[in-house]
Design brief:
There is one protein chain. The protein is an alpha+beta fold. 25% of the residues lie in helices and 29% in strands. It is built from 7 helices and 10 strands. Strands 3, 4, 5, 6, 7, 8, 9 and 10 form an 8-stranded antiparallel beta sheet that branches. Strands 1-2 form a two-stranded antiparallel sheet. Strand 6 and strand 7 form a beta hairpin. The chain starts with a strand and ends in a 7-residue tail after the last helix.
């Protein structure tokens, strides 16, 4: 057993894979972990605002090929449009984030990636380059909102013994179809307008996504038509 320093803390590293019950700390994402991550059809993202009163957020992330391991200590995922923007708001405020992956088939395993995240908005000069790294299909391009980049500070697994076995039936394409419907109804700027109405602030009032200049002058009727009114898509 080896002791290493992570973020100023001493952590135990267990190099042997025979210790299946004992959680392990990894210095970086090795090829075996990367391969396992890429096989998972869903992962979970958790963030929280600073202070004791704000709402903690956990979001499931699906859609194949929307997560990339950039380096052994950096991952990124394609952020798709939604009725809220909690993760983005929390990252803008404090940067803290954890990604969790679970094995629903095969040997049990849970993997957590703690780190600091940042938001690459569509207005960012580097957004196109980041987006291209995912090689998104046309329907994903229609609903992509930003790219979340995470510099990983702690990599840890745990047993996952109580995570149930489940089989993937199929990917849902409802968000892609919804995006197409919005484009047909409101035109090519529908996404920027939707973000302006629904994704400016978190539920705690923290700044989330910026407003595109082209949609600043939306009138009250346009605003009402594009508002999610706090409901899911």
């Amino acid at each position: 057993m080896e002791i290493i320093s992570i973020g100023g803390r001493s952590e135990f590293v267990v190099p042997s894979e025979r210790h299946q019950f004992l959680g392990r700390i990894f210095e970086e994402l090795n090829s075996k972990l990367i391969n396992w991550i890429e096989q998972q059809p869903v992962f979970f993202v958790a963030t929280a605002p600073v202070g004791p009163d704000g709402h903690i957020n956990v979001s499931p992330k699906g859609a194949r090929d929307t997560l990339r391991v950039i380096t052994p200590r950096q991952v990124a995922y394609l952020d798709l449009i939604g009725s809220g923007a909690e993760t983005i708001a929390h990252l803008r405020e404090n940067g803290r984030i954890v990604l969790m992956f679970c094995a629903f088939t095969g040997p049990p395993k849970v993997l957590r990636l703690h780190g600091r995240g940042r938001v690459i908005e569509s207005s960012d000069p580097t957004f196109d380059a980041w987006s291209a790294g995912f090689n998104p299909t046309a329907d994903l391009q229609e609903i992509q909102r930003s790219v979340i980049v995470v510099d990983v500070e702690r990599i840890a697994d745990s047993c996952g013994f109580v995570v149930p076995r489940m089989e993937l039936v199929e990917e849902r394409d409802l968000l892609q179809k919804w995006g197409q419907q919005q484009g047909n109804r409101f035109g090519s700027t529908w996404k920027e307008e939707y973000v302006a109405v629904n994704n400016q602030l978190s539920i705690d009032g923290l700044p989330a996504l910026d407003i595109e200049p082209s949609v600043i002058d939306l009138n009250a009727v346009d605003l009402a038509r594009r508002s999610s009114a706090g409901k899911a898509l």
